[in-house]
Amino acid sequence: MNGEDVRDLLSMKSPAAYAVAVFYVLACAVCASATLGGVSAVWPPFVSVVVFAAAVVLLLGAPGDPLGLRSTVLLTASGPVAAVFVFAVLPVPLTGSLQTWPLGMSVVIYTFMCVRGRTPAAWLGLVLTMSVAIGWAAMTGQGFLYGLSFSAINIAPLLMSTFFAFTIRPLAAAIFELRTQSTVRIASRAAAAAVLEERDARLASLDALARPLLQRIADGPDPTDEDILACRLLEAELRDTLRARGLMRPELARAARSARARGVEVMMLDDRGPAALNDDVRERIVAAASSALDAADVGSVTVRLLPPGRTAAATILLDDLGEGAQRVEYDETGHTRR
After folding, report:
1. Parent domain of 248
2. Most buried of 95, 170, 239, 247 (most Cβ within 10 A)?
3. How many angstroms separate the CA atoms of 195 and 188, rounded?
4. Distances in Å between the alpha carbon of 200 and those of 26, 190, 195, 197, 238?
5. pLDDT category, 2, cuts 50, 70, 90?
6. Are 277 and 140 members of one domain?
7. Domain check: are 175 and 255 in the same one?
8. Nearest-10 Cα torsion for 218, 220, 225, 227
9. Please, how many CA atoms are within 13 Å of residue 18, restricted to the half-sphere of its CB?
10. Nearest-angstrom CA–CA distance, 59 and 100
11. What is the DSSP string of 62-87?
12. Is residue 284 domain-resident?
């Protein structure tokens, strides 16, 4: 499962999961404290508690699905290691059945290892843990079968968790796939809605700008010189919205319209494409272009956003038909290049 794992489905990253982990560690500590009768040393059972505490934290926190190799090895070893510490100090015979508590606690770790995609390693860990118990029974003269009798009961819960893992993991994969498809559909709908909104905004703007002129031409009389100039200015403004979308700001549109009305030839180009400029940088360039247009009385002014990767981000070319053309370049910060 790319990018997601079964922990998301089972809420293994939630505060509730860590609360359960705390109760698990407390249960281990209670078991260790309540089974000290007859043991040859007190500290080894509490070492086992630390081992299980580390294992449950690793089980909940280790990323990846399935579990990474290092995490898998450590979790697999937690059961037999904890069992060695406890069984090494147990009395013969046992003073209570609870003294074999590492067997049951290890199954909890191995159960969730199955869920996290490491079922064979979980079974290996259980076999090794049972081997510790069986080996202890044989070495203390109690017999192989005695050790098998009280350790084999842990096979049942791990068997159930194995079937559960084979059920939940394919289901989790299907759920994550559906979630991905749903996200893609939502993104597609949002993009389509944005396109429609942009289209409606453009149509509304075009209607507000062009309808009065078109209505005047349709109603007659013949258009005056002022009407023809207004049509030319409107055509140029509409052209700017298509060819220089990245430059379209109210102050620059006003400056361009005024300059064209004075007879200045104005051309604005946005060749930057989808690589948008920072808003502050864009505002600096727009402000500089507006000032240049306001100062122009004759000739031509060309404002251009350059493609990404150029030494300059934008240029303003001024040609007053007298002293020749003047080119001003702006860097990626919106300041004049020296």
Report:
1. 243-330
2. 247
3. 11
4. 63, 15, 9, 5, 15
5. very low
6. no
7. no
8. -40
9. 6
10. 22
11. --TTTT-HHHHHHHHHHHHHHHHHHH
12. yes
212 located within any domain: no
- 143 and 10 in a single domain? The answer is yes
The 314-319 sheet, strands edge to edge: 265-270, 300-305, 314-319, 325-330
Find out whether 303 and 244 touch, Cβ atoms under 8 Å. yes
Residue among 182, 238, 184, 240 at smallest CA distance from 209: 238
Query: With 0-12 CB in 10 A as exposed, 13-18 as middle and 19+ as buried, what is 140?
Result: middle
Residue 81 burial class via C-beta count within 10 angstroms: exposed 0-12, middle 13-18, buried 19 and up: buried
**Which residue bears the tokens 């910060």?**
333
Look at residue 210 and tell me if it is in a domain: no
**What integer is the mean pLDDT of 45-72?**
90
Does residue 142 lie in a domain region? yes
DSSP 8-class letter at 198: H
- Final residue before a domain boundary, out of 128, 161, 181: 181
Per-residue pLDDT of 170-204, as tens digits, reads 776 666 677 777 778 888 888 888 778 877 776 77
DSSP 14: S
Locate 45 and state its tokens.
Answer: 């059972």
Mean of all residue pLDDT scores within the chain:
84
pLDDT value of residue 3? 47
Residues 174 and 249 in one domain: no
What is the pTM for the complete model shown? 0.56
Report the alpha-carbon distance of residue 112 to residue 78 in Å, rounded. Answer: 13
Provide the domain count of the chain.
Answer: 2
Question: Between 299 and 78, whose confidence is greater?
Answer: 78
Q: Are 284 and 249 in contact (CB under 8 A)?
A: no
Residue 107 in tokens = 């199954």
**Three-state DSSP class for 245?**
helix
Residue type at position 113? M
